[in-house]
């Protein structure tokens, strides 16, 4: 096999998604020689099949809702329907602008970009297109793909994954969404706003089951009001084709029919057949195992992003990629506190959180050591103006710091930046209560929740 390089790179990165390209950009910035290998499109899932396209769809959905509800704001407009080609053109325009920008960034940092499918051939080499790329260090960043359930075939037509849903050429009349996690509820929200009948099937007792139970319940209430149906604690047992679509069966005997079914039961790591195990890299159910510095058991190999068993979020991939680049460049790095990572589900209404849930806090500190406070958005002027409902809930260790911020309401994702500073700086409620929030903004609601926790509520109704 030809050795591409006379060059031995400092770092060879396999996979150009959020984790891989962040590692490449930071490593190059620190003066390292970097090769970045990508078989698809630079930017990976987040840019092409994940965060960005879904958020464009959700924004189009918001415009549709606002148009339908415009009379309630005294604005005359008629909602005539969804032009799905127009929606895709808008979404694709956003993606292509960002894609060009990212390609330019990678080129400007003098990163050797290799287009092709790579395979780890030893602890220091990756083979691509018949060439061998050698690095003093290797970073594995091959990401994840949609998972299914045993025996459930995704045909891309009536039973689809999020990848198919993003390019669907129509608004379906009705959809079953299998899985009430982040991806499932976001698509449910979009389709309902676009005019489809939506039923979510979730095996666990709540939608958004990883969130604080209060947030899940508020989301369920809001979805019920919007006419989104859901079956909770309901285990899926099978699907069959009907004359016009699909029929899903549940273990409790219920059946749900729709035009198509989205399978949103999570994503699994891309690690099979890529030479990882042959190179001695330890894995668990396909996930590459790493320590808190993203180092695998093989000294020359690190791994980041959805491929490792941490939170499957783009900004986690960015942070892990940067951490690895800085470590390889000899900088002092600090392990990531994953509880301090902000999490947003961008449906209508949004669910945003940082820190731990009330249940987890009670488990860690004891029930009598945990204090909570809530602020209802009904008491927040800007939320009233926007006609959104919801709540901010805080979890505090008695006489100590705020350890959880849980928010439900439109645009609450935009509040999570302040919430993460509060959590990560271990702020006391009394310290946050000192800070003055601009009126009228939704950020005031976060301030008011801290006023309540500090014992001096302002606009709280008891
Ligand atoms: C529908 C959806 C919505 C999402 N929304 C959000 C959101 O709003 N916010 C958020 O933070 N996260 C969101 N995510 C998650 C986010 O997209 C992922 O966490 C993130 O993309 C993970 O980055 P990564 O680099 O680990 O993997 P990926 O982005 O999957 O990148 C891996 C890359 O490796 C390449 N690759 C794989 N194998 C090889 C090989 N053998 N050779 C060469 N290249 C290879 C792939 O082509 C891919 O480009 C969403 C995901 C989905 C599916």
UniProtKB/TrEMBL annotation:
Cofactor note: Binds 1 FAD per subunit.
Cofactor: FAD
Presence of keyword Ribonucleoprotein: no
Highest rank taxon of the organism: Bacteria
FAD/NAD(P)-binding domain segment(s): 9-321
Any GO MF annotation of the entry: dihydrolipoyl dehydrogenase (NADH) activity
Family: Belongs to the class-I pyridine nucleotide-disulfide oxidoreductase family.
Further facts: The active site is a redox-active disulfide bond.
The protein's name in its UniProt record: Dihydrolipoyl dehydrogenase
Organism the protein comes from: Streptacidiphilus alkalitolerans
Gene that this polypeptide is encoded by: lpdA
């Amino acid at each position: 096999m030809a050795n591409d390089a006379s060059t031995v790179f400092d770092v060879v990165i396999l996979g150009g998604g959020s984790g891989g390209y962040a590692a490449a950009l930071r490593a190059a910035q620190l003066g390292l020689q970097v090769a970045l290998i990508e078989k698809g499109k630079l930017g990976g899932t987040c840019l092409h099949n994940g965060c960005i396209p879904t958020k464009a769809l959700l924004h189009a959905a918001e415009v549709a809702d606002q148009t339908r509800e415009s009379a309630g704001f005294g604005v005359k407009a008629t909602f005539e329907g969804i032009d799905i080609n127009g929606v895709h053109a808008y979404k694709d325009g956003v993606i292509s602008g960002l894609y060009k920008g990212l390609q330019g960034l990678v080129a400007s940092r003098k990163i050797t970009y290799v287009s092709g499918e790579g395979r780890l051939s030893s602890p220091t080499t990756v083979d691509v297109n018949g060439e061998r790329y050698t690095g003093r260090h290797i970073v594995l960043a091959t990401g994840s793909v949609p998972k299914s359930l045993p025996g459930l075939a995704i045909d891309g037509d009536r039973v689809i994954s999020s990848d198919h849903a993003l390019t669907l050429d129509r608004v379906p009349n009705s959809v079953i969404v299998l899985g009430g996690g982040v991806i499932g509820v976001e698509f449910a929200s979009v389709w309902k706003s676009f005019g489809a009948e939506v039923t979510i099937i979730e095996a666990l007792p709540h939608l958004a089951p990883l969130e604080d139970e209060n947030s899940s319940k508020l989301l369920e209430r809001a979805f019920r009001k919007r006419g989104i149906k859901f079956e909770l604690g309901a285990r899926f047992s099978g699907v069959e084709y009907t004359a016009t679509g699909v029929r899903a069966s549940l273990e409790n005997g219920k059946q749900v029919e729709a035009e198509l079914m989205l399978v949103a039961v999570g994503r699994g790591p891309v690690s099979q057949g890529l030479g990882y195990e042959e190179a001695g890299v330890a894995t668990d159910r396909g996930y590459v195992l790493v320590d808190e510095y993203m180092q695998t058991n093989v000294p020359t190999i690190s791994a980041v992003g959805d491929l490792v068993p941490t939170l499957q979020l783009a900004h986690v991939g960015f942070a892990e990629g940067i951490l690895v680049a800085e470590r390889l460049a000899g900088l002092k790095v600090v392990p990531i506190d994953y509880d301090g990572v902000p999490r947003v589900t961008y449906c209508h209404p949004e669910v945003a959180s940082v820190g731990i849930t009330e249940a987890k806090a009670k488990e860690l500190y004891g029930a009598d050591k945990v204090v909570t406070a809530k602020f209802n958005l009904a008491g927040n002027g800007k939320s009233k103006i926007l006609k959104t409902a919801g709540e901010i809930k805080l979890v505090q260790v008695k006489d100590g710091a705020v350890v959880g911020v849980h928010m439900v309401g439109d645009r609450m994702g935009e509040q999570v930046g302040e919430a993460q500073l509060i959590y990560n700086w271990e702020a006391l409620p009394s310290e946050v209560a000192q800070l003055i929030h601009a009126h009228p903004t939704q950020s005031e609601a976060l301030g008011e929740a801290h006023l309540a926790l500090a014992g001096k509520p302002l606009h709280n109704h008891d």
